[in-house]
Design a protein that fits this description.
The chain has 12 helices and 2 strands; from the N terminus they run ααααβααααβαααα. It has a domain of 52 residues. The protein is elongated. The chain has a two-stranded parallel ribbon with strand order 1-2. The two termini are 50 Å apart. The protein is mainly α and 265 residues long.
Length: 265
């Protein structure tokens, strides 16, 4: 029999229980005999019986294929996250031919992430089902990539096992937030690369707001990055950038450092 870790043992046991719950008791005379011969307490005998049935019915092999599919699905989702993060950086800075509106750029980099972060936090507090769609997508991809009909019974068993131990919200949370972290790291790397290889000018624009509003917002957002050593544009630079992109190196560097610092924080 294939060597299994404790999680896989519980997982297969739960899978066999679900099969019997939905389809009726399995033919288990030989499994019961072997479980009694091994001995141990009742939970141990139940697990041994389930493992023997899982091996006989191909569930153990299906679990191996499902795990392979899950790893491949995770790699695909990670690739999508990296490409998405790079796309955010390119969308934020453009091709360098036109000045960059700093607040549009910041919104492009962090707007969607902020909305999803708030929805995750609200789900954590009230529903416990945050990121469920992305979690279901991963499970669906894992099943499809496993290419085994028997693997379809494994995902529900895993979810029930995690729910019983109140780990489902944390497991899905780790998956969702890790992918978003990867996307933002990708955005940060591409942002630094673009800033290092192209010359950008930075402006802010408004029709109805006053310059003092942008000064206050810029200084507030830059307060934490400043503690980490990132430059924050001076009041004079902020006001002057409302008319046109300043054609001086110190202004470009200050705005670039502010943008990178806010993204990092």
């Amino acid at each position: 029999m294939t060597a299994l870790n404790p999680l896989q043992t519980l997982w297969l046991t739960e899978t066999v229980r679900l099969r019997e719950e939905h389809a009726g008791a399995l033919e288990d005379q030989e499994a019961n005999r072997l479980a009694r011969s091994v001995g141990g307490d009742l939970p141990t005998r139940i697990q041994n019986r389930a493992l023997w049935l899982a091996e006989r019915d191909g569930l153990t092999a299906a679990l191996t294929r499902w795990l392979q599919g899950a790893r491949l699905a995770l790699i695909l989702l990670a690739a999508v996250a990296i490409i998405s993060g790079a796309g955010l950086a390119f969308a934020a800075l453009g091709n360098g031919l036109a000045p960059v509106n700093v607040f549009w750029a910041l919104g492009s980099l962090l707007g969607l992430n902020l909305i999803l972060l708030l929805s995750w936090a609200l789900g954590l507090l009230f529903a416990g089902e945050h990121g469920a769609s992305l979690g279901r997508l991963w499970l669906w991809l894992s099943e499809k990539l496993a290419r085994d009909a028997k693997a379809a019974q494994l995902a529900p068993a895993l979810l029930l096992l995690l729910q019983r131990r109140k780990l489902n919200r944390w497991a899905v949370g780790v998956l969702v937030n890790s992918l978003w972290l990867l996307a933002l790291l990708s955005a940060l790397v591409i942002l630094l690369t673009l800033l290092a290889t192209r010359r950008y000018g930075f402006v802010w624009e408004t029709t109805i707001l006053r310059a003092d509003t942008f000064v206050a917002v810029t200084q507030t957002l830059g307060a934490l990055p400043a503690l980490l050593g990132f430059n924050v544009p001076t009041v004079e630079m902020i006001r002057a950038s409302g008319d046109a992109a300043l054609n001086i190196e110190s202004a470009r560097q200050a705005w670039a450092a502010w943008l990178v610092g806010v993204l990092l924080v």
